[in-house]
């Protein structure tokens, strides 16, 4: 980029919002260091109008724009390429909570508000904003929307997509689309917000959203269960869902090796059960109903015992104990980092196939890489498994990680056999765009390109993310 | 259309699927007779492949295609224009339930399956398919998807959009998009199903869908409440939602005049309460939890009484009594037909504004048309009111109905003041396309046109529905 053009961009925001090299650096690589990029400028505009001015100039001058939220994405969708020609447009300072309307069960927040702040703003008025994920202290609502983030509350509340009533976005030509609707029902034509949600910044940049709020739960019951197999876990999920319906708000599977990693690497972690079990299920019921959910949890566990599905179970006697159960679950990604290299698969399969998927994929991976340690955990009730593979004990990390793509092929073949997704909740980004050909027909890829071309004919918004770059 | 071309279309299906004039006639006007059209051919293909063959020929020859489901739509979206050049493509014989997977909590049904059959198929395996609306015996799942149908269960289960996991559609160029995914989480790029859902047949034709199933409720508690005002109804809704959360599965407001119409015109209808009240609320709790929902309902009503929100209330003592409450609610459209002309407004406003909307719109309409009888009823908990206006007693029906657009302008002005929707759950069709300019910015209309042009560049699919016709 010419100094003249850079100066024109810089003039669109205040001087403190043109980041210097030190401030820019952490935004130019993603957390695991898989992607590093360069940018002509890193800008942190403070208003939708400033964003629009930047994008208009980019459109006029053919400049690439890469939007970035909290920079916690795991697929490289927030990192510019190495050319140094792009504008990195950070939403960090679009950080106002514009309104919290408890009576209307909604709030209007800007894209750069962290998820934790959004949750807190809801809690302050006695409401629940249910989206919850490991990076919630850092990730932003805009990033959650751009990636249609999932997390641990999808079972009862849906993905981010299901929590959004309205969207404000700057389109690739610099126009502002004010779609900040507050309506539960609105059938006035194509529902455009769903195009932007999950588009990973490739169709424009989301600057603010209207989010749904829910009644805060009055009661919670949490249980930690030991089981023999993923099949038993799936059976118990079905029992729990039949008993509790939407009050089943968490159903996370954890393998024994995950417990062992946690006991070894998480300060103060304790085994929730007296004996080790091959598999565990973390069950959470919660509801605004004041109805003794503990009794429902007991009924679920009793039915599980009577059908020989359970080996052991404990119900949390306090909020602290429930938090300790969840800490093991939420620490699983971190503890794997202490066990050397880990090759990840963020996959989903239809609910009915999740147990057989875990068994088949484990067998396939163990045959492919003897000694590799499968750590398959996560959102059983959504059919979404984080099928991670830790390196063999004592193996060389770099050598193990060099086999990333080959390992992916082995695990994804099992996903494909069950008509699953290879990008269940983290998105496609740059990491997985080559995989789309395996899971999408030509017709669908073509539809996606038609949409991209219609909204971003110059291909300036996050090129190379989701779809391969095409010549404009 | 030339006889030669008509013969080419007819040859794509079996002879019995080319309807003769008698069989075609009921499909060429919509139920209220507001729209009547002509078609070169009315075809009832029996497979997705037959649909695709028809659409390919239409694409090749520049022939307009109008998709039609159960022909229950209220906005003229299913009726061809008067030119007689279009193919009316009825999904009536795409009527297979391809699969019901109770364990996976899903079913795969073709577009022409009636909603009632889909509900029954779910119930047969002990599951709930919650979509529920007045025309469910006749309307089809494909039509529900095309219009993103709402109904009485949106409060707890969402609109049709929220109940669809996957879509199979024939695109305007005749290609089949198989998007019949069965996944609860899938972030592999743009979520194209949301483009087709609610597109009213203007972007292609949905031929089959994967629908979510839910646990069947074990318990239901239903109450009929008398109140002084819509404000009191909204306050009671908030109390109910705080107590019951997702177990609040129905919250319908009914004005006194609606009860009176029902008592007069519905066989065997009885007033649920001893005394008349200006407003009534039908509350339903249901849940798979076995927890004594009656106690929760009592707690809701007690809080309502203690805060002087309620005037009277009765809890249904039996399923029959609950059904009698619902019969009054579901009969409200029909009974208005016995009271002369009725001008309809299918509108929504943000939840917090629904009570003041009813009051303001009623005052505006009564000032505009003295003697006109406002019958404002419906889905209070969704902010979606069927703001219908019955003619003054003894007035001339045709004269009254001639004031449809003027009346709309008066009521819609109040909708606009509250940033509401003028097409909340019935869609846009031909009836409301002129209204979109009032509720959409130019940017949004332009986005919609960009999408239409990208998917249907020749403008052959349901032209004039949602968007005004454009020259291709």
TrEMBL record, chains A, B:
Keywords from the named record: FAD, Flavoprotein
InterPro entries: FAD-bd_oxidored_4_C, FAD-bd_PCMH, FAD-bd_PCMH-like_sf, FAD-bd_PCMH_sub1, FAD-bd_PCMH_sub2, FAD-linked_Oxase-like_C, FAD-oxidored/transferase_4, Oxid_FAD_bind_N
Keyword Flavoprotein annotated: yes
GO biological process, one term: respiratory electron transport chain
One Pfam family it belongs to: FAD_binding_4
Superkingdom: Bacteria
Positions of the FAD-binding PCMH-type domain: 35-216
GO molecular function annotations of the record: catalytic activity; FAD binding
The keyword Membrane is assigned to this record: no
Listed SUPFAM superfamilies: FAD-binding/transporter-associated domain-like (SSF56176), FAD-linked oxidases, C-terminal domain (SSF55103)
Cofactor requirement: FAD
PANTHER family, per database record: BLL6224 PROTEIN, D-2-HYDROXYGLUTARATE DEHYDROGENASE, MITOCHONDRIAL
Similarity section: Belongs to the FAD-binding oxidoreductase/transferase type 4 family.
Protein name in UniProt: D-2-hydroxyacid dehydrogenase
Organism: Methylopila capsulata
């Amino acid at each position: 980029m010419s100094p003249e053009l850079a100066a024109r961009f810089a003039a669109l925001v205040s001087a403190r919002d043109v980041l210097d090299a030190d401030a820019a650096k952490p935004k130019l690589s993603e957390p695991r260091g898989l992607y590093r990029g360069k940018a002509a400028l890193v800008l942190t505009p403070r208003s939708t109008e400033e964003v629009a001015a930047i994008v208009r100039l980019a459109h006029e001058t053919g400049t690439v724009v890469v939007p970035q939220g909290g920079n916690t994405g795991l697929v490289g969708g927030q990192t510019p390429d190495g050319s140094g020609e792009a504008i990195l447009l950070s939403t960090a300072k679009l950080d106002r909570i514009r309104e919290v309307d408890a009576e209307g069960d909604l709030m209007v927040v800007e894209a750069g508000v962290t998820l934790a702040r959004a949750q807190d703003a809801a809690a302050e008025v006695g409401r629940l904003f249910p989206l919850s994920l490991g990076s919630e202290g850092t990730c932003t609502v805009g990033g959650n929307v751009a990636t249609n983030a999932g997390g641990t509350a999808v079972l009862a509340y849906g993905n981010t997509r299901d929590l959004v009533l309205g969207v404000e976005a700057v389109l690739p030509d610099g126009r502002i689309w004010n779609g900040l609707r507050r309506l539960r029902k609105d059938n006035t034509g194509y529902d455009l917000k769903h195009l932007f949600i999950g588009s990973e910044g490739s169709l424009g940049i989301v600057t603010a959203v209207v989010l749904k709020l829910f009644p805060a739960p009055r009661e919670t019951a949490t249980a930690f269960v030991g089981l023999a197999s993923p099949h038993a876990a799936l059976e118990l999920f079905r029992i729990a869902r039949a008993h509790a319906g939407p009050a089943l708000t968490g159903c996370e599977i954890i393998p024994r090796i995950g417990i062992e990693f946690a006991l070894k690497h998480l300060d103060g972690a304790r085994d929730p059960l007296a004996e080790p079990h091959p598999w565990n299920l973390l069950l959470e019921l919660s509801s605004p109903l004041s109805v003794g959910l503990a009794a429902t949890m007991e009924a679920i566990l009793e039915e599980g015992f009577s059908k020989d599905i359970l080996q052991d179970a404990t119900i949390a006697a306090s909020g602290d104990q429930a938090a300790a159960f969840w800490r093991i679950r939420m620490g699983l990604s971190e503890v794997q980092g202490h066990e050397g290299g880990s090759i990840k698969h963020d996959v989903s399969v239809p609910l009915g196939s999740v147990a057989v998927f875990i068994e088949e994929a484990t067998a396939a991976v163990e045959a492919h890489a003897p000694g590799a340690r499968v750590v398959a955990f996560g959102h059983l009730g959504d059919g979404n498994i984080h099928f991670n593979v830790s390196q063999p004990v004592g193996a060389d990390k770099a050598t193990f990680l060099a086999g990333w793509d080959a390992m992916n092929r082995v695990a994804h073949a099992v996903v494909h056999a069950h008509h699953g997704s290879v990008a269940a909740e983290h998105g496609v980004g740059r990491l997985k765009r080559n995989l789309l050909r395996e899971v999408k027909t030509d017709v669908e890829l073509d539809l996606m390109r038609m949409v991209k071309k219609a909204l971003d004919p110059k291909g300036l918004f996050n090129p190379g993310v989701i779809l391969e770059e095409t010549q404009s």
